[in-house]
Sequence to fold (97 residues):
Amino acid sequence: MRDYRDIIIRPIITERTMKIMADDNKYTFEVRKDTNKVEVAKAIESIFNVKVVKVNISNLKSVNIRRGRYMGKTKAVKKAIVKLAEGDSIALFGDEE
Fold:
């Protein structure tokens, strides 16, 4: 069994994810590509001491991008949107408890 801290790579913080965090109590994380919903839920519950209600996972493909005359690709990531139980929260910026 892997360590739970190896499953969660980083939180994804954008305007859209901050809006769903405030409205629906959902948090978005980048996770390893070989994980499933059960492993993500157990990892979030053990790391942050919260109750996970639901996990949605989506695979984001790489996209061709252009910077001037140079072509490149973004990296492909696996994203997990985690819904927490009512009253639970995760302190992403250290201002919450």
